[in-house]
Specification:
The complex is a heterodimer of chains A (about 270) and B (about 350). Chain A has about 270 residues and is an alpha/beta fold. Chain A folds into 2 domains: about 230 residues, 3-Layer(aba) Sandwich (Rossmann fold); about 25 residues, no CATH class. Chain A has a 6-stranded mixed sheet with strand order 6-7-8-3-9-10, with helices on both faces. Chain A has a 4-stranded antiparallel sheet with strand order 2-1-4-5, covered by helices on one side. In chain A, helix 4 crosses helix 5. The radius of gyration of chain A is 19 Å and the shape is globular. The longest helix of chain B is centred in the first third of the chain and has 39 residues. By secondary structure, chain B is an all-alpha fold. Chain B has 14 helices and no strands. The relative contact order of chain B is 0.16. Classes of the chains: A alpha/beta (about 270), B mainly alpha (about 350). At the A-B interface, helix 2 and strand 6 of A face helix 9 and helix 10 of B.
């Protein structure tokens, strides 16, 4: 269990996240949704232990995240950020192997190598192993980083939860790979990992979320335990445009469509 | 394609052999030319002969040549390794060890001694007098680097803001260069000449104590640097990503900066400012498609040593009996090599 308890975070007197309380459970995909500047990335970085909350607490399985040893945390929790560029050339395989750095001394090089290959295979990147990372397209690079992150938490830690945090993981991917990557995340949740992801595409969020966390102006606006409970009104409040939830005629699932600026009835 | 481990071992064997050959050739050449047989004799037998020529050659070898070639190797290794460290730390291919003020500060410290030295009585005290110049250079190096660090370090979240550091480095470099320029201007001609020569580096004052100092710092520093290799690899992903992999980025930055400052300050305080080695050597190794910081650090230690031993040999033989300042040579040879790399678009990390 990864939880925020009245956690706030600010820099230079500006509060980016106010009093957030949220419990992310193993086995669930929690999706953070909200407009730009709503505090999604700040919340994710608090969950990652990158930021220490200015007030409140962040805990993993009841332990204060900042009291945890860096290595222990790194063996249990992996984070995928957006658009990672390398200053110097490096092969795809070496990038993925970096995910195994926290395990050095506890794992063998051969074992790390095997995990790196399996992580690459999971994302359909086996043939990319020897490629220079710098020559990849944005989407390919993102998938390689996902493989690195998977390699980091390939095996569940000796004790406690395994955590996967994703910051807009599919922004640079085409639709096929958006689903591929999110299915991998989904699978990890099935294996009892805590999965938290920021998504911009509301329909992808609806398709993969077990819980939806709506953020606005640096606060958690609403937590929906049932994503299907998302309403036009709630979407309008959060995004300030006119969004409608309709039923997808093919699947019968909720589908969000854009209907114009907030309050506008320009149809 | 990345070289296989076998191929990497081959590169290292070639570099090691090249270093050995360069050391022996360099020890042979000079105002007094020694034969291989003589050198072999010196190294294998501890007692000398009674023949005065042989005794002279023996003295030249042990008192002048050997400490000098070994000091060249140590300084070359130190500068090249710190270049690799700095490029990895700043995630930037145009960074070189002097960027954060270390060498410019050392030059200013040395210039102060050159100008004030004669008026200070302790400069004439034996041993202590010989230490004043390197000590002042070392203090200057640390002061300039410390200033860059203090100027760029902000309260913030405690990490070293590397971009601010680059900018502060440029400013402090300019400040130190201005100070050195001013001292050269007010200096009398011989003093000004000393400042100029020192700014171009020279191994002519090499002796065993300076070799022990630089050799120890380089060897220990190099071993410590290797421990940071993985962390520096991870840093290529970005500072946050390195944190997510369990690395204390702030501590890494502080330690690598301190390590780099010690390596460059000790080397520069001993032999003066030698440019370009630290910038070019890591790039030459990247041409061999070496990417891991462990192999880059080891390789730059070896290649830096080879290049500086060769450079010094050329510097002291090309216009013998005079000696060309080695900094002239590393710049005159190093710059075109670097430009050639640029023109071929073979600088890794530049668009």
């Amino acid at each position: 269990m990864l939880s925020l308890d009245h956690a706030s975070f600010g820099v230079q007197g500006k509060t980016l996240l106010h009093e957030a309380t949220l419990a992310c459970r193993p086995g669930e995909v929690t999706v953070l949704l909200g407009p730009n500047g709503a505090g999604k990335t700040t919340l994710l970085r608090l969950l990652a232990g990158l930021y220490a909350p200015t007030t409140g607490q962040v805990q993993l399985d009841g332990h204060d995240l900042h009291r945890l040893d860096r290595g222990t945390l790194a063996r249990a929790r992996a984070v995928l950020s957006q658009e990672i560029h390398l200053a110097f050339p490096m092969t795809v395989e070496d990038v993925v192997l970096m995910g195994r750095y926290p395990h050095h001394g506890r794992s063998t090089p051969a074992h790390d190598q095997r995990i790196a290959q399996q992580a690459l295979a999971t994302l359909g990147l086996t043939s990319f192993a020897g490629r220079d990372y710098g020559t990849l397209s944005g989407g390919e690079a993102q998938k390689v980083q996902m493989a690195r992150v998977l390699a980091q938490i390939w095996e569940p830690p000796a004790a406690g939860s395994r955590v996967l945090l994703l910051d807009e993981p599919v922004a640079s991917l085409d639709i096929q790979y958006q689903h591929q990557l999110l299915q991998v995340a989904r699978q990890l949740a099935r294996e009892q990992a805590v999965v938290v992801t920021i998504l911009h595409d509301i329909n992808l969020a609806l398709a993969y979320a077990d819980r939806l966390v709506l953020l606005k102006n640096g606060r958690i606006h609403r937590i929906l335990e049932q994503p299907a409970a998302l309403t036009d009104e709630l979407l309008g409040e959060v995004f300030e445009v006119d969004l409608r939830v309709i039923l997808n005629p093919l699947t019968g699932q909720p589908l969000v469509v854009y209907a114009g600026p907030a309050g506008g009835r320009n149809v | 394609m990345k070289p296989s481990p076998r191929r990497v071992r081959l590169y290292f064997s070639i570099l090691a052999v090249a270093l050995l050959v360069a050391l022996v050739l360099s020890a042979r050449l000079g105002a007094v030319a020694l034969t291989f047989a003589e050198i072999g004799g010196f190294l294998s037998r501890s007692t000398g002969s009674i023949d005065p020529t042989a005794e002279l050659h023996r003295a030249v070898f042990f008192q002048i040549r050997l400490p000098r070639v070994l000091l060249c190797a140590a300084v070359g290794a130190a500068l090249a390794m710190s270049g690799t460290l700095m490029q990895a730390l700043f995630r930037n291919p145009i960074v070189e060890p002097g960027l954060i003020g270390t060498s410019a500060g050392a030059a200013l410290g040395a210039a102060v001694i050159f100008v004030l030295g004669n008026s200070l009585s302790w400069a004439n005290v034996p041993i202590l007098g010989a230490l004043v110049l390197p000590a002042a250079a070392f203090v200057g190096a640390l002061a300039a680097t410390g200033l860059v660090y203090r100027l760029s370090a902000t309260a913030g979240r405690g990490r070293v803001p590397v971009t601010s550091m680059l900018l502060a480095g440029i400013a402090v470099n300019a400040l130190a260069a201005g100070g050195t320029g001013f001292l050269s201007y007010i200096a009398r001609d011989p003093q000004a000449r000393s400042i100029t020569f020192w700014s171009l580096g020279s191994f002519s004052s090499a002796d065993w104590p300076s070799l022990y100092l630089v050799g120890t710092v380089t060897a220990v520093g190099g071993l410590v640097a290797l421990r940071y290799a993985n962390a520096l690899n991870a840093l290529q992903l970005g500072e946050n990503e390195a944190e997510y992999l369990g690395i204390d980025v702030r501590r890494l930055q502080n330690r690598v900066l301190l390590l780099n400052t010690l390596l460059v300050a000790v080397a520069t305080a001993t032999v003066g400012v030698i440019g370009f080695v630290g910038l070019v050597v890591p790039h030459l190794l990247r041409l061999l498609r070496l990417t891991d910081n462990r192999t880059l650090l080891l390789g730059s230690g070896l290649l830096g040593a080879v290049l500086l031993v060769i450079s010094d040999t050329v510097a002291r033989t090309i216009i013998a009996p005079a000696e060309l300042p080695i900094g002239v040579l590393t710049a005159v040879v190093g710059a075109p090599v670097f430009l050639w790399l640029l023109s071929k678009h073979r600088i890794a990390g530049l668009g």
